[in-house]
From TrEMBL:
Name listed for the protein in its UniProt record: Acyl-CoA thioesterase-like N-terminal HotDog domain-containing protein
Protein's organism: Bordetella bronchialis
Pfam families attached to this UniProt entry: 4HBT_3 (PF13622)
Occurrences of domain Acyl-CoA thioesterase-like N-terminal HotDog (ranges): 217-294
Amino acid sequence: MLRAIRRRREHGFHFAGNFLAVSFDRVTTEESLVSMKAECHARDGTIDGTALGVLADLALAAPVRAALPADTRLATVNMQLQLTGAPCHAPVTARSSFHGFIHGAAGRQAVSRVTLHGAGQEIGLGTATFMVLDLPPGTPIPFLTPVDPALDEAPLLDPERDLDPGERALFEHARMALGDSKADDDFLDRLWGYRTRPHKGGASGTLANGPHIGNRVGHVQGGVLLGFAQATSQAALPAGWGLSSVTACYVSPGEGRELKAQAEIVHQGRTTAVTRVAIATDEGRRVLEVLATHSLRAAAA
């Protein structure tokens, strides 16, 4: 946590990416290489949903950033991911490429694609579209640099002396999440703060906003939004169902005090299922629409 806070100061991009030790090993339009050094597998051995969302979002944006000035902001418009279900172990690598801008669009929208590998196996592939926006005044320009936590020998920040009020709130949030965790493998759920509850035909979820999940302008980071949607969709289904694909449409910024998710089971067959998830602000403004497919694992059949 303390190293992530320091990297956030140095690199200028959001806490979630720094906490997951996302490393921008190469950033070019033709082939960017982005890796995630933190351990990021879920209980079933596949990639954690929030880690997947954050890595995919950052990796898909990397080659687009290489084609644009540094003082540019990207807003995710849509993202499609197909997963193979292969086991996931750190480091996870993502290779992405820029595929130009949408012709004839009134707003400048950039297209990119990505493949993800973990432990030598392909775990997923996907595409995304980003809206190119001006960076608000005073927003830090991110430095997309390589990161290797194993070689990080800088002294740790002192929680009592070295943190500003916002950083201290981040640190205390993580300490509370660690204290509330009943096992090592539910710490990340506590850290991100997803609260989901199944009900007949679906599930609901709530997520309190905060700096631990925010991007540079204070909105909930796009990959975290995707992780929240996945957590809610998984809560709608019995154990044994795994995510196999997701199509996400980003409608508006994730802002406000709290976000709410509603998942609906569209179809549940013998081996495949479909869920639809809508995320909105506490005032009812739509933020994200997700359609996901799930596969029943052989062990649960």
